[in-house]
């Protein structure tokens, strides 16, 4: 009975974490590292790009969820090919999840070098496990072993976009294996299904404001109502300072600030309030991220 109790608690934490993680994705994915949300955005800039992010949820609770992402992308000199690697890790209580994926993107130039249609596809592996050291259970119980002995599975994403120096239209389909194989089952609640977004960058000459970029995103999550994100990013003082604000239709908000050094390194911090259903239990999410462009 004691083992069953811990397994139920662990599963409950994991399912809630997955739900909450999908409702509020990484803040850096909206503007600074769109490759996280759409494989078609891999390598849209020439040369190497590297980005990482760490998010902590419900920090006042022991065993609270945390997420980490790390991406590397490369755009060829002719702007036609993009390659990327995406590593993602989650931890909630006794349960963890690792994902490693590789991306190929093709950027088709249109009538000039400022207009592109992009296509991208990602494939990779995912594993889930329970940390034996954090579980108090009977030694002969097979539930934990059965969970950890499940095979690693292969999955993928597909994305597309149209963009120029101001307008970006994009969409993506996530977790293609579950989309194509309805009989495929996994212990993941409320997975991301699809995303569509449009943004337009208004440019201004001189300081202090260099650009304002409003964005509307529509997201689908299984077993939950579709969501809308309304956001704006402002870049100031030669793009050395940036601030963005995003309202999520779940009732939460994300505020981010960042700075850029030498047109290469961006350091960003985000805070996301809890959703309406969780505000009385949660102190929100804290995220710190970086984005580096190699010259």
Task: Characterise this structure.
The chain has a single domain (2-293), classed as monomeric porin ompg (Porin, Beta Barrel). Helices cover 11% and strands 51% of the residues. It contains three helices and 15 strands. It has a 14-stranded antiparallel beta barrel with strand order 1-2-3-4-5-6-7-8-10-11-12-13-14-15.
What structural class is derived from the secondary structure elements?
mainly beta
The level of helicity is 10-25%
The termini sit apart by: 59 Å
| Rg calculated over all Cα atoms | 20 Å
Essential attributes:
295 residues, mainly beta, Porin, 14-stranded antiparallel barrel, 3 helices, 15 strands
Quickly describe the structure:
This protein is mainly beta and 295 residues long. It has three helices and 15 strands.
